[in-house]
Amino acid sequence: MAAAALPLFCGAVASRKTPLTQFSSSSVLFSSLSSGVAVRKRRSCRVSIGRFRAELAVFRNLDADDFRHPLDKQNTVLLRAIPGLNELGKALLGTVSEQIMLLENIGTSVLVSENQLAELHKLMVEAAAVLNIEPPDLYIRQSPVPNAYTLAVSGKKPFVVVHTSLVELLTRKELQAVLAHELGHLKCDHGVWLTFANLLTLGAYTIPGIGGFIAQNLEEQLFRWLRAAELTCDRAALLVAQNPKVVVSVLMKLAGGSPSLADQLNVDAFLDQARSYEKASSSPIGWYIRNAQTRQLSHPLPVLRAREIDEWSRSQEYHTLLQRATPMNSTVKA
Ligand SMILES: [Zn+2]
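# zinc ion complex -> structure
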């Protein structure tokens, strides 16, 4: 089945009722306080970048299954087993809304290239090289909501959209991790299922023959899958950042960052917070609350994503992957 337009709502914990106005051309501005650290282009491939990795490594033969989260694998199998889902998908794909999203995006955003926001272009090209994937187009869009998402329309080159407020919130290295997360969705062919999830969110209840109960069940299944897919793509972010603190810092900033607080945020304290959340929610009442909190979310809670990526960074699987990597002759300052 053809892939279609898909807003991934990455980087934000989107509720299941994420409004279609996500794609409005609102031009409300955030404070333009910058927390970004300029990218420094160097000729040498060995550059000291403080506590972050000194050299980007490229995974030349990387396959999606090399880093796919086990819950993603498991939920993909479950999703494929749902009767009628493909038919529903066909009914939803190719809708006018996809074209509107596509056209509006191109018309209201800045297309990044070698001649336009070249630093950001380089971040994307590097991240794509690390993950062994063709770089999609990258658009920067004016929005006060820190967010990034990927759209893949059948027969067209996929593209990633990053909101301006996210650029302001993150360092360049963190921004590259976000781009890598988005590339992860493309690398893993998440497109079709994400389209289902998002289009269901935006209007499944109006599709003839799809009752509310079925739609709700499907929606829950899809969101369960999507939360698992997010964990996979956080791994893609780590493969590019090659430092778990970069990815955790992104999640921390999405949970409660602001440009003016950027230099005061503490990644280790956020990880401690994640551990205490796990502990608090392990009691029966805690489990109930946590389940209720996450069931309707398209993305796992930031603290849980942080915990998950911290654990994977210590795993044998990750270190074995790192051993397969080879150096790339360029680097980005953290
Ligand atoms: Zn995502």
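# post-check
The chain has one domain: 57-326.
The chain has 13 helices and six strands.
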